[in-house]
Design goal:
The structure is a single chain. The protein is of the alpha+beta class. Among the domains are: 55-101 and 116-197 and 350-402 and 421-437; 201-294, no CATH class. It contains eleven helices and 20 strands. The protein has helices at 5-10, 66-86, 138-143, 182-193, 255-262, 272-278, 283-294, 335-338, 356-361, 371-380, 417-424; strands at 18-22, 25-32, 36-38, 56-62, 93-100, 114-120, 122-127, 133-137, 148-150, 157-162, 167-168, 180-181, 211-215, 234-238, 246-248, 301-303, 315-316, 394-395, 409-410, 428-430. The strands form six sheets. Strands 1, 2, 7, 8 and 18 form a five-stranded antiparallel sheet that branches. Strand 1 (18-22) and strand 2 form a beta hairpin. The radius of gyration is 22 Å and the shape is globular. The N and C termini lie far apart (78 Å). The chain binds 2-acetamido-2-deoxy-beta-D-glucopyranose (NAG) (8 copies) and zinc ion (ZN). One 2-acetamido-2-deoxy-beta-D-glucopyranose is lined by residues 23, 59, 96. It comes from Cetraspora pellucida.
């Protein structure tokens, strides 16, 4: 007689490793339930790079006249073409893009300096080969072609472009000093959408940590659909795909600091209240404080591409903003190092009075995506002719989920209004008042 067993087997396996981002605040993730689906893997098409298929689908909301909106569409096609001729995409990438006023006529509005913002709109927690689970952007997860994978959402990337900016488009007369090349901004934002960006950020004032998130299954009584963390939820810091390769300039992986930071939670109740009340008294607090200072010291963080062992081959990240600049610090390349190089694209600050073609024309390397940026994306898992067999993490099989592991739920940040306004501009391309040297 096994009267109760069927009750257990009838309860569905909930796959709890999927998240959607708030389009206006891309670091604010919400759990979504996702079923595992099985599909026939498509062949890795090494010829795609030379075919005229951009593999991008765009849904564009454009609040301008037809003339401008057509130019926006053409720039999108060009950006998609540049990406598709650099990397071999084997699954279509879907973009929800808007070309709208960020200021809506409000004079001196602080968003007047934001050219655009973009980020992955959907994330999936995957198992990496270093015994760590990290959040991967859906656009990249799709490229891995897992035969069985969590169901995807309709959009991979959210992008917004500020129509208040004096943009220059390819068919316009020569660019004026005050104009910004729309293609430059578009390409920069698409690269963020593909996963260029770090989880390390100032989530808590004066501290830099990976994204704090909550494991909803750590409590015996959990409600996956509740928007509020449960009393026994376990907070932890989670990295993104990019962070697997982030190093301090001495070569030490920043993931080793994440391990140190997460030690705060071992042997404790792990409730949000414990975290809120006691983190500032811990050793880990001073580590996070130190990371905040490192993040404001030039040339102190880098991305180490695959196959490299020498930190001098790495991509230097942006750590020269003082104070720390949410959305710009860390998640861009160092402005000074890459100013006059073919890897200028992911600097935090766009350049006026010049076009991506003028900038790339000055370097022998052609497309706007420079060699180190290309290597960075390949290291994260994008295929190219130079990288036909990229690294691939594994799917977390939901049937292996226990009530105390593998799933996370975002930590609800308690931010004051000022911070919310700044954090909204996460992964943005800024105009800064002064060109930096
Ligand atoms: C985060 O997203 C949730 C759900 O979309 C929303 O209710 C909440 O206001 C957002 N919080 C912030 C700080 O943006
Ligand atoms: C490639 O596709 C674009 C639009 O999708 C089209 O305008 C262009 O003519 C095509 N080029 C070739 C060589 O077929
Ligand atoms: C479209 O809008 C632009 C910018 O506001 C303006 O310069 C242009 O004259 C408009 N074109 C048409 C056909 O209305
Ligand atoms: C694209 O995103 C915007 C912002 O969230 C939303 O208002 C719009 O409905 C989305 N478009 C589509 C077609 O889903
Ligand atoms: C960019 O704009 C500033 C003024 O805002 C101007 O001084 C500078 O010359 C412009 N740069 C270029 C390359 O035109
Ligand atoms: C490298 O630098 C980091 C940050 O300053 C430090 O925590 C780490 O101990 C250093 N590693 C070595 C091997 O010196
Ligand atoms: C970059 O090039 C410009 C013009 O060629 C030059 O004025 C500037 O000093 C260079 N900057 C760096 C950091 O090399
Ligand atoms: C490109 O090179 C030319 C000639 O050396 C120089 O005058 C121009 O300023 C450079 N353009 C940019 C955007 O650096
Ligand atoms: Zn950016």
């Amino acid at each position: 007689m096994i009267p109760f067993v069927f009750i257990l087997t009838l309860s569905p396996i909930i796959s709890a490793q999927c998240f959607v981002a708030d389009p206006y605040n891309p670091r604010n993730l919400t759990h979504r339930n996702c079923d595992m689906i099985t599909e026939q893997p498509k062949k890795n098409n090494l010829n795609a790079a030379i075919k005229n298929d951009t593999m991008f689908d765009i849904t564009l909301t454009c609040n301008a006249n037809d003339t401008i909106c057509n130019k926006v569409k053409i720039a999108f096609d060009t950006a998609a073409q540049i990406i598709s001729s650099t990397f071999i995409l084997n699954s279509r990438i879907s973009l929800n893009a808007s070309f709208i006023s960020f200021c809506n006529g409000v004079p001196n509005c602080r968003n007047a300096i934001v050219l655009g913002q973009a980020a992955p709109s959907s994330w999936i927690l995957l198992q990496d080969d270093d015994n760590t689970q990290r959040l991967y952007p859906q656009a990249l997860v799709k490229q891995f072609q897992f035969p069985t994978h969590p169901a995807y959402t309709s959009y991979d990337i959210f992008a917004m472009f500020n129509s208040d900016i004096p943009y220059w488009f390819a068919s316009d007369p020569p660019i004026r000093p005050d104009q910004y090349d729309f293609l430059y901004v578009m390409l920069h934002e698409l690269i963020h959408g593909l996963g260029f960006g770090s989880s390390w950020e100032e989530y808590l004032p004066g501290l830099v940590t990976p994204m704090p998130a909550i494991n909803p299954l750590s409590s015996t009584k959990f409600d996956l659909y509740s928007s509020d963390p449960q009393a026994n939820d376990k907070v932890k810091f989670y990295e993104w795909a990019f962070d697997k390769y982030m190093i301090f300039i001495n070569g030490t992986k920043t993931s080793s600091l994440t391990i140190q930071l997460n030690k705060f939670f071992s042997g404790r109740s792990g409730t949000q209240a414990d975290f809120d009340n006691n983190f500032d008294k811990s050793n880990q607090y001073s580590l996070a404080r130190n990371m905040y200072l490192i993040s404001q010291t030039p040339n102190s963080l880098a991305f180490m591409p695959q196959g490299s062992t020498n930190p001098s081959d790495s991509l230097i990240l942006e750590t020269s903003f003082r104070p720390f600049r949410q959305g710009s610090s860390i998640s861009h390349v160092d402005a000074a190092t890459y100013m006059n190089t073919s890897d200028f694209l992911m600097r935090a600050q766009a350049r006026n009075g010049t076009t991506i073609n003028m900038l790339t024309g000055n370097f022998s390397y052609g497309s706007g995506i420079g060699p180190i940026l290309k290597k960075t994306m390949e290291t994260m898992g994008y295929t190219s002719l130079d990288n036909p067999n990229p690294y691939r993490p594994s799917i977390i099989d939901p049937s292996t989920l226990t009530s105390s592991s593998n799933t996370i739920k975002p930590y609800r940040l308690r931010l004051d209004i000022g911070l919310i306004i700044t954090i909204i501009t996460t992964l943005v391309l800024y105009i800064l008042p002064k060109e930096m040297a």
